[in-house]
Design goal:
Distance between the termini: 23 Å
Strand order of the largest sheet: 3-2-1-4-5-6-10-8-11
Shape: globular
Strand content: 15-25%
Length: 211
C-alpha cells in the first residue's frame, strides 16, 4: 500500500514510518521539516504544512491508499494544527477519494466529562478540546476512519502487548502506539471504530482482531 503520514517527522510519525516500512508499505512522509523524515528508498518526504489550504494539501498527498494523522503542535498551535489542520486533512482525503483515515487522538477526547476528573488529564483541557472537535468532525464524514485513543505516552521500550477498549487510565510506550497504528490497517473490523488503548498483556494483533 501507499500511505501518507501527516506529522511524519514527529515521535510517533517516525516510529510509524519504520513500522509501515517493515510491513512492506510505501510511505509519503509529510512534515514541515523534511530533513527529519526517515530516510529510505521506500519513503518520499514531502514538505507539508497543516496551515495550507485543502486544495494544496490534496495536491501534496496525491493518490494513496490510506492517510494517518499523527501531527501535533505541542500545545503551541492547537487551533490551526491539532483541530482545523486535522479537519482540512480529512477534507483533502475526501477530495482525493482516499477512504481510509487513521487518527491518532487521546484518551477520552470525546468524553469532556472525564477531562477534569482523571488525574493526568486535568491539565490538558485545551488540547482535549482541539482533539474533541477534530474527532467529532471525523465521525461525521464518509471516511473509513479509525480513531486511536492511547493513554499517556511514555518513552520506555514497547512490549508489543496492549489493552483495548476498557477506558482505564494508564500509560503506553510510544513504540506500542506506533505499532498499533500500523497494525490497524490489517483489520477490517477497525473501520469506523474508536479504540481506547493502554499497556496490557494481550499481543497487539490479537487485541485488534477481537475488537
Amino acid at each position: 500500500m501507499k500511505i501518507f503520514i501527516a506529522g511524519a517527522s514527529g515521535r510517533i510519525g517516525t516510529k510509524l514510518t519504520r513500522d509501515l516500512l517493515n510491513d512492506g508499505h510505501e510511505v509519503i512522509g509529510g512534515a514541515r521539516n523534511t530533513d527529519k523524515v526517515v530516510k529510505d528508498n521506500h519513503v518520499t518526504p514531502v514538505k507539508f504544512d497543516l496551515h495550507e489550504s485543502v486544495e494544496q494539501m490534496a495536491q501534496m498527498i496525491g493518490k494513496v491508499d490510506a492517510i494517518y494523522f499523527t501531527a501535533g503542535s505541542g500545545a503551541k498551535d492547537l487551533l490551526q494544527t491539532d483541530a482545523f489542520g486535522a479537519v482540512k486533512l480529512m477534507q483533502a482525503a475526501a477530495k482525493n477519494g482516499v477512504k481510509r483515515f487513521i487518527m491518532l487522538s487521546a484518551l477520552f477526547s470525546l468524553e469532556p466529562n472525564r477531562w477534569r476528573t482523571v488525574k493526568g488529564l486535568d491539565g490538558l483541557t485545551d488540547y482535549n478540546i482541539a482533539k474533541f472537535f477534530a474527532d467529532n468532525y471525523l465521525l461525521h464524514t464518509d471516511l473509513d476512519y479509525t480513531i486511536l485513543q492511547p493513554t499517556v505516552m511514555i518513552d520506555k521500550p514497547g512490549t508489543g502487548k496492549i489493552t483495548v477498549d476498557d477506558g482505564e487510565f494508564g500509560h503506553n510506550p510510544a513504540d506500542d502506539v506506533a505499532r498499533t497504528l500500523a497494525d490497524i490497517l490489517k483489520y477490517q473490523n477497525t473501520k469506523c471504530r474508536i479504540i481506547k488503548m493502554r499497556e496490557g498483556e494481550t499481543p497487539i494483533d490479537e487485541a485488534l482482531s477481537q475488537i
